[in-house]
Write a structure and sequence with these properties.
With 82 residues, this protein is mainly α. 56% of the residues lie in helices and 0% in strands.
C-alpha cells in the first residue's frame, strides 16, 4: 500500500492556518510585528510573511517566535488543523 503524500496545496493551507493562529496570538497580546521581532531573532517582515502563509516555518523558527511572544513553543501549534 502506498503512503499518501501531501501536495503543495495541502502545505499552503497548513501555512495559512498556522499564520492565522500566530497573528491571533500576537494581536491578543497587543504586540506589533516589530515588538515580537525585537524579542527574538526574527525579522518583522518574515513574521508578517508567516502570518500570511507565505513562509515555511521550521522548528527553530517556532522556538524564536515563542521567545518573542513569551510563550511555550507548543502553544504555537495548539490550533485546529483542517
Amino acid at each position: 500500500m502506498r503512503k499518501k503524500t501531501k501536495t503543495k496545496k495541502d502545505y499552503t493551507k497548513l501555512k495559512q492556518q498556522f499564520g492565522a493562529h500566530l497573528q491571533k496570538i500576537r494581536l491578543d497580546k497587543g504586540l506589533s510585528l516589530r515588538e515580537v521581532a525585537q524579542n527574538c531573532d526574527l525579522d518583522d517582515s518574515n513574521i508578517s510573511k508567516m502570518e500570511h502563509g507565505r513562509f515555511n516555518v521550521q522548528i527553530s523558527t517556532i522556538y524564536e517566535l515563542a521567545k518573542g511572544l513569551n510563550l511555550h513553543p507548543a502553544d504555537l501549534l495548539k490550533y485546529e488543523f483542517e
